[in-house]
Structure formats: C-alpha cells, structure tokens
Amino acid sequence: xxxxxxxxxxxxxxxxxxxxxxxxxxxxxxxxxxxxxxxxxxxxxxxxxxxxxxxxxxxxxxxxxxxxxxxxxxxxxxxxxxxxxxxxxxxxxxxxxxxxxxxxxxxxxxxxxxxxxxxxxxxxxxxxxxxxxxxxxxxxx
Length: 141
What we know:
With 141 residues, this protein is mainly alpha-helical. The protein has a single domain (14-117), classed as Arc Repressor Mutant, subunit A, CATH 1.10.10.10. 65% of the residues lie in helices and 9% in strands.
C-alpha cells in the first residue's frame, strides 16, 4: 500500500505545529495557546463573561478541559469564576482587568503565528481555506 498524505493527517500536523509555535512564543508570559484563546474569547464577549458551556462550544472541547483551563487562569488572576445569579449550578468565567491586559499584550503572538501559517496564500485563498475547514468541522460534528 502506497503512503499518501491525508487531510486528517495534514490538519493534525498543522495544528501541532501551530500549538508548538504559540506555546513556545507564550512561554515567557506563562500562558498556553488554549489559555490565550480563552482570554480572547472573553474579551470579545459582552460583559467579558461567558458560561463554561459556551466556552466548550467555542473550542469544541469537553467540560473537564474547559474547567481545567478556567481553573488555571483563575489561579493566575486572569479570570474570575462566578455563579450565574439566575441558576447557581451554572459557572461563569469573567475576564479580570489583569487578564485583559495580558490578553491585549499577547494578542500579537497569535496574529503573527496566524500570518506566518497562511504566508503565500492570497486573501481569497485564505477565505476559501477557512470556508472549507468550517465545512469539514461541521461534517464531523
């Protein structure tokens, strides 16, 4: 059987390379790429607050994964964990002022890595790539 690159294999390799590059670039700040992504998601939300369930949907990860990320960010003082006043069973994550500063300071790491990843692709090709990746994600959801 002939060895052939597959979409899944290439996507995994790209994801691993992006995670490695981001994590290396963020090491000094004490953040991981997943933690930075969480801070960015909170920054772009009204009230800078999200239910943990919403974070699960945004990142397509399990509840224990989100809880772990939120707990570590809370330990660093970058987010505050709250209970929903309407339903005490619901846990919320709220970006702190320190978290906002850290998010804005480290955002360039993400944009630089993203630009490096798509270097050589036209804007139209980048949009088409995003469109195709969204379809692939939905096909597997």
